[in-house]
Amino acid sequence: xxxxxxxxxxxxxxxxxxxxxxxxxxxxxxxxxxxxxxxxxxxxxxxxxxxxxxxxxxxxxxxxxxxxxxxxxxxxxxxxxxxxxxxxxxxxxxxxxxxxxxxxxxxxxxxxxxxxxxxxxxxxxxxxxxxxxxxxxxxxxxxxxxxxxxxxxxxxxxxxxxxxxxxx
Length: 168
Description:
The protein contains four helices and four strands. The protein is of the alpha+beta class. It has a four-stranded antiparallel beta sheet.
């Protein structure tokens, strides 16, 4: 009885079973072609890699590549150390500047006097003020800590300091 049911099922659905079988065969055929194409590409790469090389020269090539990698690692470590030294040096350099030119005395023209503020990244540095008159020039230096001076600043010095503090 079970065999008869199975035979009737097959007779009733023979076209669907055949179509599903054909679809599965077609999918497997396409997958087989894709696999063959990939194998062909890998074979070309393998042949190009192995062309003219025996086992000894291939071993030398691989060892040379490993040595090059080791050399690159050493160079990278040296460069990292150099970068750290440069970073530390940059933090100590004057990076911000503010300059204001002015006439110190009414009878003098040409704005020959100036105030120059030079600060590091933390707004520490100095303010240089050069006053020019008929007899010569006088230069004054004031220490700047955290963007401020313990000594009173002139209007021009304040402007120069503000320019430097607000510089990028």
